[in-house]
Amino acid sequence: MTSLALRDVTKYFGSTMVLNNINLEVEDGEFLVLVGPSGCGKSTLLNIIAGLEVSTDGDILIGDRRVNNVHPKDRDIAMVFQSYALYPTMTVRKNIRFGLEVRGIARDKIDASLNNVADLLQIRELLDRKPSQLSGGQRQRVAMARALVRDPSIFLFDEPLSNLDAKLRVEMRVEIKRLHHRLKTTVVYVTHDQIEAMNLATRIAVLAKGSVRQVGAPQELYDSPANMFVAGFIGSPAMNLIHGVVVKHDGRLFVQPDNSADDSLLRIDHCELTAVPEDGARIVLGIRPEYVSLSDGTARHFDTNMIVEAIESNGFDKHVTFQFSGRQITGRLPSHAEPVVGKSMQVALDLSHISLFDEQSEIRISRPHRKS
Amino acid sequence: MHKWLQDHLPKIVLAPSFAMVVVFVYGFIAWTAYISFTNSKLLPRYQFEGLLQYRKLWEMDRWHVALDNLFVFSALFILFCMAIGLLLAILLDQRIRIEGALRTIYLYPMALSFIVTGTAWKWILNPGLGIEKAVRELGFENFEFNWLVDPEFAIYTIVIAGVWQSSGFVMAIFLAGLRSIDDEIIKAAYIDGANLPRIYLRIIIPSMRATFLSAFIVLAHLAIKSFDLIVVLTRGGPGYATDMPATFMYAMAFSRGRIGLAAASATIMIITVMAIIIPYLYSELRSKRHE
Amino acid sequence: MSEGRFSTAGAAGTRLTISRWLLFLVLGAFVLVYLTPFYVMISTSLKSLDEIRVGSMLAWPETLTVASWAKAWGSACVGIQCDGVKPFFWNSVQITAPAVVISTLLGAINGYVLTKWRFRFDNIVFALILFGCFIPFQVVLLPMARVLGILGLSGSVGGLVLVHIVYGIGFTTLFFRNFYITVPSELVKAATIDGAGFLTIFTKIMLPLSLPIIVVTVIWQFTQIWNDFLFGVSFSAGGGQPITVALNNIVNSSTGVKEYNLDMAAAIIAGLPTLLVYVFAGRYFVRGLTAGSVKG
Q1: A285, β-bridge pairs
Q2: Are the beta carbons of C209 and A88 separated by less than 8 Å?
Q3: Per-residue DSSP letter, C155
Q4: Residues C282 and C205 in one domain
Q5: Subunit contact A78:C193, Cβ cutoff 8 A
Q6: Which residues, in sequence order, are bridge partners of residue A216?
Q7: How far apart are CA B250 and CA B271, in angstroms?
């Protein structure tokens, strides 16, 4: 069953188009993350799903029911906000009960749901406190309890972890994931943090400037980004994008990077291309930092010497920035490697895991990788 | 139907207040302005007569006296209030333990009606029994202080009472403005070698432009509206030596039965106020948009 | 102990100590300036007329007498009525109380609508309401007098209540609007999803957290309305006048002997309510004063 469907949803604020023909379908039990840079329209889209804003065009369907004109309280949704939005003058208990009381639900039923939720989120001891007496993490849990107690068919999260410190954010992420696994309710989750998206989602929708750039499982977006935007957005450190020209040599296809010191050629004929580019066409080769590393002599590597510009060690491995093709690329070296800033060293590019993009349209032209 | 009600409830709720303002503020202003163009005396007449009343107004010596007094009073009132307010604010900014008590003392006059404080000052400035007598008792036997009944100097007594009442308020505004300046800028100046007076002159006071403007607007507004203080201190007298547009208007409207003239004077008053407030609000809104 | 606003290491030494003394000297002088009139009021009200005529205004009474106070309260003549200021004090109470309550309530709901239920032109509506604060009231005296006459409210307490409500809305709306703008809209969104409607959100969520601004507004309105003179003298007559008008009548009465002690006693009675409010809740008053002006 489709839990939520967005068909051709468009939104204008005045004459500015904020959402451009959004089409998304969310299956029952999915955890869909809407991710994108600020201003991409993800919060607006969430508000439209909730009914807090009206779309200029298009349809919103919740469980096969068209809800465009349905009041938020009748859409069977619950929402958790970035600032938690707990009613400051009410105790935690009252905060959680409020929505149910407004609906006129019987007292004993409310109490039962309340106890249920309090146990689930471990906030029993907090029930008689006021929001100002709670820490950030506790407030977030109360906000989730308030949403959970309504037992909705869709949960909406609007950047709920952005106000927490790094450590707490990681803890809450685990908590949210655990809850989703247990309750199996449909979730639409908005964040600007692509790491959070990768961690939590069953599917990710990347938005930029009001349009969906790609929808898919996290690994799919990571391995086979559909365009240069998604390539640069998902994954940290970002995918290296090497600009160059296509060279046909001995019947094989190569990429010659711009500003190469020698006439280095990167072999790309092992890639399936949706359209074969002309000789001399502009092209962008994407390669993730983990595939820029020490040489190990196997085939499909391109070995070269590069000058080290910067080194960042994180204990597990080293992120090293090299000069290449007039720009910089990042590689991940094992922690035992000893790069020296300013000195040249031998680096291998593993070309078995690259993505090719047309430079002008920025669209992917190499077929997505299949898991072998 | 029910949905329409729910959707428009906010506007419906706002409507009574808005309607009241439209009628009792803008409607009334329009009415008064219109009457100022008629020949109304005791009762309103609605025949349009052009600038008749305004010509009469400008021919009256009493009106000119009122305008003169307004300028003199406003200039002195604003000047002294700002000076004293700034001085007190700077002094209080020096981290004194009894700052709270001092602030309370400097500000309490604002809590009182001008009639109450005017009564006190009327007594203090009483020629014969007030300051004049007290200073004479201290030994200065030839001290004279009868400004209150002197046509030339009476206006200054109003300045004294007005400044006493309002300078605490100005101090409060300036103190808030002083305290809103980022401490780090001042620390940087200290490290650069500037001493306290220089820091105040070169850094702090220039940063308070907006506060000065606010205080100026509030004081100008108070000055133009001056009515209570004059009525209780001098009743506009001796004669009409301390008359101001507000008391002039009241006299014309309610004692002299010349409401056309009163309307004209009132219209002049609001034009003056608007001439100050509107550019101020406009510039505030524009600067907010740039932020 | 920190010297002045900035604690400095290796400052000018003795220079600073002298400045500190000078500082307190100036501040102390101003304390005298501000308190002397109040002192004079009290001391004069406790003197007999003979003592007033003979002695210096700054001297403390040799024989304390509260006769003036009793007379001011119960038997002084205001116009033709000789019941003291008591009835007029009561008038002021009857005018001030409902006007404060109603104008505050209206300001609250107006501020709520203007910040949480945006609609087209709402900025213009707010500007129009706000502008009402700035007009010199001379420009509405004439038409208001006529309208009150038509409504049968001229010279009455009810008329003044209406006047103060109408001309208080500008300020009260400003106060609440500036306060509610700092309340996150997500609260309203959460309540909407929870199913609460326009009025429920106002009563169950906004009002409970409005206590600080309610106090500021009530104190501000109380002070403005109690201390008003212009509307009082323009729209009331005879027995319906507020105490400020009565006080002015006493002080400026052209008949009889000038009783300065009576004047002072009456003035203190008139000023006591707002003064007491200020003494006990002064910081809210200041908040009100600076709320509108510093931010503009």
Answers
A1: A242, A356
A2: yes
A3: B
A4: yes
A5: yes
A6: A204
A7: 17
C195 contacts in chain A (CB < 8 Å): 73, 99, 102-103
Q: Are residues C267 and B137, on separate chains, in Cβ contact within 8 Å?
A: no
Question: What is the C-alpha separation between A257 and A285, in angstroms, rounded?
Answer: 9
Contact A98 C196 (CB under 8 A): yes
Q: Is C35 on the interface with B (CB under 8 A)?
A: yes
According to DSSP H, which parts of A17-90 are helical? 42-50
Does any CB of chain A come closer than 8 Å to the CB of residue C199? Answer: no
Asked whether the beta carbons of A340 and A250 are under 8 A apart, the reply is no
How many residues appear in chain C? 296
pLDDT score at A113? 92
B36 inside 8 A of chain C by CB = no
Q: Is C170 in contact with C132 (CB distance < 8 Å)?
A: yes
Best of C35, C46, C135 to disrupt the B interface (most B CBs within 10 Å) is: C135
What count of CB pairs under 8 Å joins B to C?
276
Answer yes or no: do C183 and C39 share one domain: no
Interface list for C 148-187 with A (CB within 8 A): 184, 186-187
Residue B62 exposed, middle or buried by CB count within 10 Å (0-12, 13-18, 19+): middle
Residue C57 and residue C164 in one domain: no
3-state class (DSSP) for residue C32 = helix
Identify whether the C-beta of residue B246 lies closer than 8 Å to the C-beta of residue B159: no
Residue B177 near chain C (CB below 8 Å):
yes
pTM score: 0.83
Which residues in chain B (191-210) have CB-CB distances under 8 A to chain C? 195-196, 210
- Please report residues of C whose CB lies closer than 8 A to that of A83: 184, 186
Contact residues on chain C for B244, CB-CB shorter than 8 A: none
Per-residue tokens: B33: 């302005």
Cβ-in-10-Å burial (0-12, 13-18, 19+) of C150 comes to: exposed
User: What are the distances in angstroms from CA B118 to CA B17, B114, C263?
Assistant: 34, 5, 11
What would the pLDDT profile of A120-135 be if each residue is shown by its tens digit? 899 999 999 999 999 9
pLDDT digit string, tens, across residues B208-229 = 888 888 899 889 988 988 899 9
Reported as a single tens digit per residue, the pLDDT across B165-181 is 999 989 988 988 888 88
Residues A201 and A216: their CA atoms lie apart, in Å, by: 10
Q: Is C133 touching B (CB cutoff 8 A)?
A: no
- Reported ipTM exceeds the 0.90 cut: no
- CATH code of the domain containing C136: 1.10.3720.10
Pair C39, C103 in one domain? no
Confidence check: pLDDT of C15 > 60: no
- Is the CATH number of domain B60-290 1.10.3720.10? yes
| Residues C115 and C256 placed together within one structural domain of the fold | yes
Helix axes A92-102, C185-194, angle to 10 degrees: 50
Q: Which of residues 84-103 of C touch A (CB under 8 A)?
A: none
- Alpha carbon B144 to its chain centroid, in Å, reads 30
The structure tokens 């959100």 sit at: C201
Q: Domain limits at C148? A: 86-293
Q: What is the DSSP letter of C139?
A: H
Q: How many angstroms away from the CA of C191 is the closest CA of chain B? A: 15
DSSP string, A255-312: EEETT-SS---EE-TTS-BSSPPPTT-EEEEEE-GGGEE-----SSEEEEEEEEEEEE
Q: Does B11 touch chain C (CB under 8 A)?
A: yes
A82 interface with C at CB cutoff 8 Å: yes
C48 and C94: one domain? no
Q: Running DSSP on this structure, what letter comes out for residue A211?
A: E
Domains of chain A: 2-233 (3.40.50.300), 240-358 (2.40.50.140)
* C189: contact with A, CB 8 A cutoff: yes
Residue C197 domain-assigned? yes
The domain ranges of chain B are 60-290
